[in-house]
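Quick question, first post here. What does this chain look like in 3D?
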Amino acid sequence: MMQTFTDLAERSNLLWLQRVRLGSSDYITLSQLQQHDYRLLQSVRLCQRYLRQQRDDMPFWLNAVLNNHVAELDKILALPFALSAQVLLAELWLALQQKNKAHYFEQYCRPEQSQFICLLADKPAAGRLFRAMQDFDIRSAIQIAGHSGLTMQRAALQQLAADNTLDTASLAELNYSLYLLGHHIDEYDIVQQLQSAECLTPRQLQLLLLGASAEHKVRIVNALCISDIALAVNAMGFSGLAKFCPLLLEIAREPAHHAAAQSALITMLGA
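> Answer (accepted):
Ran it through. Tokens below.
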């Protein structure tokens, strides 16, 4: 039975919206995400086959990916989507056109493109991009070295630590990347540096707490309770320390922090 245009486009759009939400979920496995990506790609391939002409009633993202509007790096970054959705669009386009990620890496030439490139890069590509980033976006070079596990660049990062021209955010990110690459730095100190530089993210906090001792976990939570209650709630959940359960239950009664506290309790105790 032939599927109508509406069937194809609506199914693809539903899968797209689900995928965007799943990307920020703490409770989905990599395997589940990959399975969903496969279903989304297969659905978009059907649209590519049967819906080649642009239509006003087609979802904006689908029009963009089917009409090559995301082939150029600057064009995809200009689309009104969150960065993670832009990366997802790029990966869909690459799969549809049977191209590899080098298509975008070869267009990389400006700092404002760096975050997108960092998210798209795998480890082999990250090693090559690290050198290019050093020339015009040192902070992104620091980030990609840590996130991609570029241990061969640890010496280069240690040399940067002596650079007095680095701003406080770049220096904090540098110490975090060195920590990820195995350099011993106190987790509490890194949290304080990132927080003071106003660049501490929940993901960074999670990884630092995974490596911290119970004593340092308590110090980190106590410090964040003074400066940022939302991050403090996240830290309680990431810490895995049962002593924070009563406090999280109390915080969960506050409407402003209910969802975050519930999420922290699930992280700590399971569903």
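The first helix runs from residue 5 to 22.
The radius of gyration is 21 Å.
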